[in-house]
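ok so i was messing around last nite and threw this chain in just to see what happens. nothing serious, just curious
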Amino acid sequence: MNRVSKIALGSVFVGIAVLALKFVAYWLTGSVALYSDAMESIVNVASAFAAFIAARYASKPADQNHPYGHHKAEYLAAVLEGVMIVLAAVAIFYQAWEAFRTPRFLDQPTLGLAVNGVAGLINLVWARYLIVSGKRFRSPALDADGRHLMTDVWSSVGVIGGVALAAWTGWLILDPLLAGVVALNVLWSGWGLVRQSVGGLMDEAPEPHIRDHIRSIISQRAEGALEAHDLRTRRAAQKTFIDFHLVVPGSMTVADSHEICDRIEEALRAEVPGSIITIHVEPEEKAKHQGIVVV
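result:
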């Protein structure tokens, strides 16, 4: 089991612990706002499990049926997580509407809020760890899980403040209103996650600054070639696919052109971890006089 898979499995156990604490808080108070917070934690557990399965599958090496690897499995998990977040938002809206029609008195608000606060603190620490790990290991599943947990942290802060205000003032209508706000936040989070994951499944290019860096590396390390054109890049979880055409003098030997390609590939792999590179060598009559100028 690789490091990403171990972290994803840890999210499952953390999510179960937080889920238990938040439902205890809901049971103590009867607050529909705390119920909404607990419902989001159910999604956290399910999505963490999906991320674990995806990370395990994505780490499998390429095979005959998947010659480019299994990296996109993480995007599928992230899409699933986004859909589950949307479903959780619908369930929260329903409970908020029922509580709005029939306001409920809050029992033991102080103890319940304290328990929910402990759960929120655990989520905050783990969310930061997931986001950092997602960037370090270039794992969309870990990053998505961490960002989702971070929205859960802010939701918990709002819920705790709102429920405390409702208990202090006696304005019971604040409880379902706050749950509705939480549901909107959850819905927005789910939409953003689905949109980002679909971009990965559709072979979206890396960020502009990464593409510019790739062009700069090719320009500086292609000494002996004439130009490079038709550069294409795409992301697939921890891998960055790079392919382009390299124009060399017609009189250059295969060995010399291969040496240039090796030099470029070595530099790209050092500067863009996880890159998979394909270079098509062409004679000078194929030059387009545009694209990447060799320094």
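not much to say yet. The radius of gyration is 25 Å.
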